[in-house]
């Protein structure tokens, strides 16, 4: 699912809020029926936990703490360390040289789906898997599918009932600084801006709120949402056609869907994992709406392996 730190913080038409809430509720019920023993959470980061001093394409956390940006929950995630470590070994054995962290810091990108779907940070065991979705250079999209598949193949050898959960995207272009056009101060932040002062954090959050306000009135300089691109992405995922998405060109993604559209990497990793672990899948819940107030093409797509889906909605 998409995330946005503006959720619940800015005004959106009541029917849109109701529709989004209803779909989150559907997902919640779906997950409750599935009753996962562990959640593998593919999440991006917005220069809160990962910076340019060391920016890996992937990182598996054996322990993690949420930093609490934009009023999101702060505190420890409940990470099954041994499982996370064996997962890291498994994907490395499969040829994906993942980074690991024994003290990962995560932001709203990881926390929002946990709060929405589980009511908090530590109600279920979670293995956080950072997927870089903002800091160029970016590894090819096909590599992300492969990485996800390695995760799925490894976990399929365990007794765990795994929920693969991805957070991010779809098309959106929030005001996250870019190295290429950043001034010295912004570069210092992008390089190693961990644990900002309260004032620095507040300034950053105000900038996002101001941009969202302008954007919803059609007056921001950020790239527009791209519902056509978003729907095509969801359609390929729904059809199990991960090869098409694996062939996306990152530069074109930036151009047509915004600098933060690369967060869809988390979705590709999760569906890659699901497909590798369980074979063909069918969609259970699908939702999409471009919501400018949230600076988000907001989507939800859930799926389960064919034959195991809890009351799947079939087409035709
Ligand atoms: O953390 C930041 O500064 C950017 C936050 C942000 C804003 C709008 C939509 C998003 O999906 C998002 O992540
Ligand atoms: Fe984001």
UniProtKB/TrEMBL annotation:
Designated name of the protein: 2,3-dihydroxyphenylpropionate/2,3-dihydroxicinnamic acid 1,2-dioxygenase
Source taxon at top rank: Bacteria
Pathway: Aromatic compound metabolism; 3-phenylpropanoate degradation
Signal peptide: none
Cofactor(s) this protein requires: Fe(2+)
Extradiol ring-cleavage dioxygenase class III enzyme subunit B domain location: 1-299
Catalyzed chemical reaction(s): (2E)-3-(2,3-dihydroxyphenyl)prop-2-enoate + O2 = (2Z,4E,7E)-2-hydroxy-6-oxonona-2,4,7-trienedioate + H(+); 3-(2,3-dihydroxyphenyl)propanoate + O2 = (2Z,4E)-2-hydroxy-6-oxonona-2,4-dienedioate + H(+)
Similarity annotation: Belongs to the LigB/MhpB extradiol dioxygenase family.
InterPro entries named in the record: DHPP/DHXA_dioxygenase, Xdiol_dOase_suB
Entry coiled-coil feature ranges: none
Catalytic EC class: oxidoreductase
Subunit description: Homotetramer.
Keyword Oxidoreductase: yes
Keywords attached to this entry: Aromatic hydrocarbons catabolism, Dioxygenase, Iron, Oxidoreductase
Molecular function terms from GO: 3-carboxyethylcatechol 2,3-dioxygenase activity; ferrous iron binding
């Amino acid at each position: 699912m998409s995330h946005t730190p503006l959720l619940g913080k800015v005004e959106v038409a009541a029917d849109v809020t109701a529709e989004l809430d209803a779909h989150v509720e559907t997902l919640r019920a779906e997950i409750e029926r599935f009753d996962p023993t562990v959640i593998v959470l593919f999440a991006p980061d917005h220069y809160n936990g990962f910076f340019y001093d060391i920016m890996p394409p992937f990182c598996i956390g054996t322990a993690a703490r949420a930093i609490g940006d934009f009023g999101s929950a702060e505190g420890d995630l409940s990470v099954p360390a041994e499982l996370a470590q064996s997962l890291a070994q498994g994907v490395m054995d499969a040829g994906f040289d993942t980074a690991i962290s024994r003290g990962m810091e995560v932001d709203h990108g990881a926390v929002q789906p946990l709060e929405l779907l589980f009511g908090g940070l530590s109600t279920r065991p979670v293995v956080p898997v950072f997927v870089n979705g903002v800091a160029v250079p970016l590894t090819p999209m096909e590599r992300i599918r492969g990485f996800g598949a390695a995760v799925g193949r490894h976990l399929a050898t365990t007794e765990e009932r795994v929920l693969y959960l991805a957070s991010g995207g779809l098309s959106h272009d929030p005001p996250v600084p870019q190295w290429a056009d950043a001034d010295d101060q912004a570069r210092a932040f992008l390089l190693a801006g961990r644990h900002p002062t309260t004032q620095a954090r507040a300034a950053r959050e105000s900038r996002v709120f101001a941009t969202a306000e302008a954007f919803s009135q059609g007056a921001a300089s950020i790239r527009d949402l791209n519902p056509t691109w978003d729907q095509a992405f969801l359609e390929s995922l729904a059809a199990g056609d991960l090869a098409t998405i694996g062939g996306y060109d990152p530069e074109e993604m930036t151009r047509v869907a915004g600098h933060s559209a690369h967060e869809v990497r988390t979705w590709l990793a999760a569906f890659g994992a699901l497909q590798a672990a369980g074979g063909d899948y069918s969609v259970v819940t699908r939702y999409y709406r471009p919501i400018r107030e949230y600076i988000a093409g907001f989507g939800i797509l859930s799926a389960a392996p064919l034959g195991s889906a809890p009351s799947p909605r079939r087409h035709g």
